[in-house]
Write a structure and sequence with these properties.
By secondary structure, the protein is mainly α. The chain has one domain. Helix 2 packs across helix 4. The longest helix has 25 residues.
Length: about 70
Amino acid sequence: MSQTRLARCFAPPTVRMALRVAVVVGTVLNLINHFDLLLGAPLSSTAVGQMALTYVVPYCVSTHGQVWARRD
């Protein structure tokens, strides 16, 4: 990855947009996939890890899309 692409990954506008996407999409996916846990079922460390990754994936996809759209 070139330095320009890496810099775009961490540019404030890219990070802000990716965080917004991750919060919205991650929350919807967590509601769909882990509704029972959110209503009070016991949480395991595996479930917490899965719930965290549910936010990481849309963040990465959004970042990739933004960098790809601004490619040289």
